[in-house]
Amino acid sequence: MTTVRIAASLAAAISLLERSPKTGAPSDTMFDMMVADYKKALQEWRVAEANCGATCEWWNDGEMWESSCGVAYVFNSDGPEDNGHRFCHKCGKPIAIGETPK
């Protein structure tokens, strides 16, 4: 699933939840929390999308790998390519290995 389809799915879920009656939810609070979680996920996707270009640049800062979309990741050995990571697990874009920003 592409990141655009994920965002569309989140937006559709938010719309459906906001239009549905709360009577099927265990509680109004849980229902509201679920809607808020979906909205937060959509907002995080929008931020990641805005901060990443066609690829998501990853670099090793000596302790962990960080990315242009804000994710930090630790590998037991080597880096993303050696561990089979081709796409960023936050923004979904292809990983490009770069140098540590100064």
Low-confidence stretches: none
Number of strands: 4
Report the average pLDDT across residues. 81
Could you give the distance between the termini? 34 Å
Instruction: Please state roughly what percent of the residues sit in beta strands, choosing from under 5%, 5-15%, 15-25%, 25-35%, 35-45% or over 45%.
Output: 5-15%
Taking all Cα atoms into account, the compactness measure Rg is: 17 Å
Reported for the largest beta sheet, the result is:
4 strands, mixed
Number of helices: 2
Dominant shape: elongated
Helix content: 40-55%
Give me the side-by-side strand order of the main sheet.
Answer: 3-2-1-4
Task: Write the H/E string, N to C.
Answer: HHEEEE
Total domain modules: 2
Structural class by sheet pairing and helices = alpha+beta
Secondary-structure blueprint:
Blueprint: H1 3-19, H2 28-51, E1 56-60, E2 65-67, E3 72-73, E4 95-97
Parallel strand pairs: 1-4
Antiparallel strand pairs: 1-2, 2-3
Helix pairs in contact: 1-2
Keywords:
2 helices; 102 residues; 2 domains; 40% helix; four-stranded mixed sheet; alpha+beta; elongated
Q: Could you please describe the fold and organization of this structure?
A:
There is one protein chain. This protein has 102 residues and is an alpha+beta fold. It has 2 domains: 3-51, no CATH class; 56-97, no CATH class. Helices cover 40% and strands 13% of the residues. It has 2 helices and 4 strands. The chain has helices spanning 3-19, 28-51; strands at 56-60, 65-67, 72-73, 95-97. It has a 4-stranded mixed β-sheet, with no helix packed on it. Strand 2 (65-67) and strand 3 (72-73) form a beta hairpin. The longest helix is centred in the middle third of the chain and has 24 residues, at 28-51. The chain is elongated. The model has no long low-confidence stretch (mean pLDDT 81).
